[in-house]
Each structure stands twice: as C-alpha cells, then as structure tokens.
Predict the structure.
Amino acid sequence: MRKRSRPSVAFSVFILSLAILLCWQGASAQADPTGLPIIGTWKVNLGKSSPSFRKTRPPTWTCTYVAENGGIRQTMYDAYPPKYAGLPTKGVAPHDHTYFFKLDGKQLYKDPEGPNEEAQTVAMWLVTRNIIFRQRQTKGGDDERGLYVVSPDGNTLTWYIWSANTPNSKGITNEVVWDRIK
C-alpha cells in the first residue's frame, strides 16, 4: 500500500487562495490598497528563498510597494536605496524596474518585468488583506502565476511563483522570502 504524503504548506496556501479567488471571480471591483500590509519596503532573505533565487539575485535585492492613484506601484532595486533620483522607468528585470497595477483582476497592466519588448501584462486580485494573486501574460498567453503573502505579523512577505503552463506535479513552487525594512 502506498503511503500518502502531506501536501506542502505552499501548495496548501495555493489551493486555499485559489478557492477564495474562484469564489470572488465575479467581483472585479477595485480594492483600495491604502493600508494593506504589503505597502512598504522589503529586502530579500536569500537564506529562506528557493535556491534558484540565491544564484541569480544579490543579497541587496529590494522591492517597494507604494499606494498610488488607487493602485500599487511595485519597484525592484538591485541595491536600496538607489544611487539615482526618481523611478527606474526604463529598467528591465532582473535589474531595477517599476510597474503600476490595480487590484481589479484586469489583464491590462503593462511591463511587470520592465519594458522588455515581450508584451507582458499582469492582472492582480486582492484575495484577502494579506494575499494578492498575480497572473502574468506574455504576448497574450498565460505564463506565470503567483501569490504574494504577507505574514500575520506584517514582517515577512513571501512570493510563491509557478508556471501557468507547466505547474510542478509535486506542488513545488519557487519561493522568494522578503523581510520588511520599512
């Protein structure tokens, strides 16, 4: 007889979030980001992140989430604070870049990886106060999904990222763990 293994925490969070998202799929009204726990500045914790990110990102990798015009501006920095003024509007991932989105589930927010000429867009949904679901498309096709989960104490942000086309059969996701610095 085969022994059943327990699903991973990441997989369980994914299933719960997906269930909540599906229940709310008809509601595409914009959620107000003011006061959400994701708003702030976060520095990567490579020691707690997936090994693939330890190889490709510097320990100074930082992201900021700022409430702006009824949505959120996410900005990524190789090092923070940056040595220049303003936003990195021409930067492309994995280096400094920025993009804007609303939590309305509309697949129209451009350049989540910076202006990389791949015709990428994202749709973002507020699943709970501490969880955002992200759907990325490249040239009109779904290619990446993710959950941004803020811990109950508000000090840790974890991204769970997986392929929209070939999800891992074992429920394994790429995890990026962030520590709040502001």
Notes: Residues 101 and 124 are 7 Å apart (CA to CA). Confidence is low (pLDDT under 50) at residues 1-5, 19-28. The first strand starts at residue 40 and ends at 44.
